[in-house]
Write a structure and sequence with these properties.
heterodimer, A: about 110 residues, mainly beta, 4-stranded antiparallel β-sheet, 11 strands, globular, B: about 120 residues
């Protein structure tokens, strides 16, 4: 049974539109993370959270917001989507010893 | 900041051949970071392949192994005889700064194993 799930798995959005990517974990981990993965860049950290109500900026936070309403859920929000945000997004829970990843969301912004 | 550099892919090898994917790291936020290899199979998320948190130690899993070398700041991934099912993308990573709980990933190396 998958411990980290993401929805949607695929999303096509229009430039200027709002996009929300959702992540749910059943690991009961305090820490959750949002990454994007692009060819030539590997995984880059967008936002992370230490627990419900907390969000922290990662290495590339511009253009993204995050929300952690509960231990289980962590959302990534693109208020005004741009084509440069076309990517594969991964959510993870865990810590510096191990992270557990979701299957990814492929986002295309036209 | 912390960074990881690994072999640029794609890497193509034939089944039963040996494999090495190079990884070197630079850690400025912590003297002895935790080192990891993650793997992503097609259509799936990343999963931990192996990790080593003590310098000088070797980690192994599924026939893969990697040794934490603090002198050369390297953590190369090796396998003596690959299988077609090993085709995937492999990511070297480091973590360990308790101030941020962050893990830094390399760019990933795509491995294709030919039957």
């Amino acid at each position: 049974e998958a411990a980290v799930t993401q929805s949607p798995r695929n999303k096509v959005a229009v430039t200027g539109g709002k996009v929300t990517l959702s992540c749910n974990q059943t690991n009961n981990h305090n820490n959750m993370y949002w990454y994007r993965q692009d060819t030539g860049h590997g995984l880059r950290l967008i936002h992370y959270s230490y627990g419900a109500g907390s969000t922290e900026k990662g290495d590339i936070p511009d253009g993204y917001k995050a929300s952690r309403p509960s231990q289980e859920n962590f959302s990534l929000i693109l208020e005004l989507a741009t084509p440069s945000q076309t990517s594969v997004y991964f959510c993870a829970s865990g810590d510096i010893y191990e992270q557990y990843f979701g299957p990814g969301t492929r986002l295309t912004v036209l | 900041g912390d960074s990881v550099t690994q072999t640029e892919g794609p890497v193509t090898v034939s089944e039963s051949e040996s494999l090495i994917i190079n990884c070197t790291y630079s850690a400025t936020s912590i003297a002895y970071p935790n080192l990891f290899w993650y793997v992503r199979y097609p259509g799936e998320g990343l999963q931990l392949l192996l990790k080593v948190i003590t310098a000088g130690q070797k980690g192994s899993s599924r026939g893969f192994e990697a040794t934490y070398n603090k002198e050369t700041t390297s953590f190369h991934l090796q396998k003596a005889s690959v299988q077609e099912s090993d085709s995937a993308v492999y990511y070297c990573a480091l973590g360990g700064s308790s101030n941020t709980n962050k893990v830094v990933f390399g760019t990933g190396t795509r491995l294709q194993v030919l039957p």
